[in-house]
Specification:
Blueprint: H1 3-16, H2 23-33, H3 40-48, H4 50-60, H5 62-65, H6 71-90, H7 92-99, H8 102-122, H9 136-146, H10 156-166, H11 171-196, E1 198-201, E2 204-207, H12 208-212, H13 217-246, H14 249-269
Antiparallel strand pairs: 1-2
Helix pairs in contact: 1-2, 1-13, 4-11, 4-13, 6-9, 6-11, 8-14, 9-10, 10-11
Length: about 270
């Protein structure tokens, strides 16, 4: 993977991490279309540049994240992230196996798009307008909803936002709680991929940080996180406006159209 390819993937990550369209699916498809070799560093890169994207949330909502008087905010996030930490560890190898096959991911994109077309009609009459009104039980339930995104193509953002709406949050409140939850979730994923996970590189087991020290990988990693951060800041502002005004339908149609195009591409031309 060269610098231009890394920049393109980082832009895709920043644009899609907080949209209900699956950033993982978009990065996998982009890598395949551009012929980027799917080696261990590329896999780690696609996961770890999510760290740059989550910093965008901290930047935009810094008053919330650094309000140490509101300890319940941190407790709720800690509770909500537990299901992803436990199930993510248990199913890590199976998830990674699916990442190599774009066809089922395209199918999940389409199915998820159909769900989004009707989701606004399913969860009506929200009563929670702010994170402070979210109970610890609701935070845990949203955390379990987020785990649906372990199937690549589902979208962590879509799963957690729908979970919030199921718990009577407004679309805006559900989206913001999804953003907040992304921080500990993606931070844990990044730390795991860089420090704890064993990557099979050139026939040898290596940690993520060891992969970074080879060739120009560290420069690609830093550049990718910086670009993902900048793009994600813009994407979050855009998404909140569209979601509040139009709901999920635009994203549903987007997923269906893109999923069909990619399904045809990967079954007929690859």
């Amino acid at each position: 993977m060269d610098l231009i390819q890394a920049i393109i993937i980082a832009i895709i990550e920043g644009l899609t991490e907080f949209l209900p369209v699956s950033s993982t699916a978009h990065m996998i498809f982009t890598s395949s279309i551009f012929g980027i070799q799917e080696d261990e560093f590329v896999k780690m890169f696609q996961v770890s540049i999510q760290f740059g994207a989550i910093l965008a949330v901290v930047f935009l909502y810094w008053k919330k994240f650094f309000d140490f008087k509101n300890l319940s905010f941190y407790y709720k996030l800690a509770i909500a992230v537990i299901p992803a930490l436990v199930l993510g560890k248990l199913f890590d190898d199976r998830i990674e196996a699916v990442l190599g096959d774009p066809v089922p991911i395209a199918i999940v994109l389409i199915i998820g798009g159909i769900v989004l077309l009707f989701i606004d009609k399913v969860f009506k009459n929200p009563v929670i307008n702010d994170e402070k009104e979210v109970s610890y039980k609701s935070a845990l339930v949203i955390g379990f909803w987020q785990c649906l995104a372990m199937m690549p193509g589902t979208s962590r953002s879509a799963a957690s936002i729908i979970g919030g709406m199921q718990q009577k949050l407004t679309r805006k409140a559900a989206a913001e709680f999804s953003f907040f939850l992304a921080v500990p979730t993606m931070l844990a994923v990044t730390v795991y991929s860089l420090v704890l996970k064993d990557w099979n590189h050139a026939g040898a087991s290596q940690k993520g940080y060891e992969l970074l020290m080879q060739d120009n990988n560290l420069m690609l990693f830093l550049m990718g996180n910086l670009i993902a951060f900048v793009v994600a800041v813009l994407a979050i502002k855009f998404f909140i406006g569209v979601l509040t005004k139009y709901g999920f339908k635009p994203w549903g149609w987007y997923r269906i159209i893109v999923g069909i195009i990619l399904l045809i591409y990967f079954t007929q031309f690859k």
